[in-house]
Amino acid sequence: MTPSLLRRLFGAGADPVGKPGPEPEYTIVFPPTMLWANHQRPHHILTQLARRHPVRCLYNDWTVRELVLEGGKLIVTKRAFRRSMWRGPLVYYFSIPEKLDYLRRHRLRPDLLVFELMDLPEAEFSRWKKRLPQALEAADIVRTTHPAITEYLHDRHPGELDGKRITTSRNGVDLELFDPGIEHPRPPELSDIDRPILGFYGNLDAWIDWRLVERLAALPDYQVVVIGGTEGMPPKVPARLLRDSSVRWIEKRPVTQIPAFLKCFDVAIFPFVVNEMTNAVDPLKVWEYLAFGKPVLATRTAFVMERPELFELVDRDSVADSVARAMVRRDEPSRVAERKAAARTRDWRLIADELHGEIVEALGLGG
Fold first, then answer.
1. Is 183 helix (H, G, I), strand (E, B) or coil?
2. Alpha-carbon distance 192 to 300, whole Å?
3. Sign (positive or negative) of CA dihedral 332, 173, 308, 266
4. Considering the chain, what is the average pLDDT of its residues?
């Protein structure tokens, strides 16, 4: 995109949705990729952009007729985006290479393309490889969520990047939602549990070390609680574990309900297998665990080993000792304070502000 195109403004007009307010500096749209109810990284970022800046945010979710949030500045809808829905320059924010097709299909002509690669294109995500060069060439701004993904792009796609800077922007936590000072009633699904809870929530997929979960479930004095589901595919959970009464299975819950469950966890667990793909993840759930000051029982992924002092390390052969150690350290004031302090450095508000600054600079709106 040329600087003249980047600076082009669409005609001004009345705000079609919500309360009157300042004319948006730009409109940012996110194509149908993830359900809004799952509240992953794009959901948090768009919410904070709408809340903190004169920006209109449009999110396409094929399951939502229309949801108007943040005083009309954030619209979630299953309808195709229409020209009448935006003001100012149009920014297209996408995370899967194939979503370039959405532009052609709906005749969108964005002023700026922001491509944010959130997982390494290996294993479950290897299908992204075919179109990844095209996405990198088309993007004006390239971002990743982990240094390993940034290194992957530099090593394998220098030609497509053509000197473009890559911003590595790690994941964060909603400190207002995951505030341990807020009182929550105990969820009825946990009301009958009278043993310490080892808890997990998230997608139930191949990257979870289910054999490790089995060994946790075998501990006689604890209750394992697993909350979650999968994105459009059957859970990859061993059938024998689904039948195990030592594991309480709870269907996926909206993010607004998760703090009530997390408050009941005695130890939070991050039982990922360790491989190339998981060594490039920066998991949202772990920052939420830490925001509550919870001890986190974790396998040795690269993310965990960046700050091993924040975690209680575990493998299949050390389950009993690791859990016992986590319970001893659960309420130690210095450790609780250290966990919460680490989470405060990952505030979604700061992460959204960084993206806003990049967009404003690229659009030439900085004055």
1. coil
2. 33
3. positive
4. 90
219: CATH: 3.40.50.2000
Cα angle for residues 302, 304, 310 (degrees, 5° grid): 155
pLDDT band with cut points at 50, 70 and 90 for residue 346: very high
Task: State how far the Cα of 105 lies from the Cα of 28, in Å rounded to an integer.
Answer: 18
Q: Tell the residue number behind the tokens 């959970």, with chain if given.
A: 237
Q: Do 102 and 153 have their domain in common?
A: yes
Same domain, 201 and 306: yes
Q: In terms of Cα–Cα distance, which of 232, 188, 237 is closest to 210?
A: 237
- Helices and strands, counts by H and E, the chain: 14, 14
User: What is the token pair recorded at 122?
Assistant: 């290996």
How many CA atoms lie less than 13 Å away from 277 in the CB half-sphere?
13
The residues near 20 (Cβ < 8 Å, ≥ 6 apart) are 14
**Exposure of 65 by Cβ count < 10 A (0-12 exposed, 13-18 middle, 19+ buried)?**
exposed
Could you tell me the CA-to-CA distances from 115 to 155, 162, 177, 322 in Å, in that order?
18, 15, 27, 40
Tell me the per-residue pLDDT of 17-33, one tens digit each, with 9 for 90 and over. Answer: 333 345 668 999 999 99
User: Domain tally for the chain?
Assistant: 2
pTM > 0.70: yes
DSSP-derived 3-state class of residue 204: coil
Six-digit token string for 43: 């959901």
- Domain range spanning residue 38? 3-172+347-363
Using CA atoms, how far residue 47 sits from 43, 170, 272, 282, in Å, is: 6, 17, 28, 20
Reduced to 3 states (helix: H, G, I; strand: E, B; else coil), residue 120 is: coil
| Those residues with Cβ within 8 angstroms of residue 237's Cβ, 6 or more apart along the chain or in another chain | 204, 210
Dist. CA 37–CA 256, nearest whole Å: 9
Same domain for 157 and 11?
yes
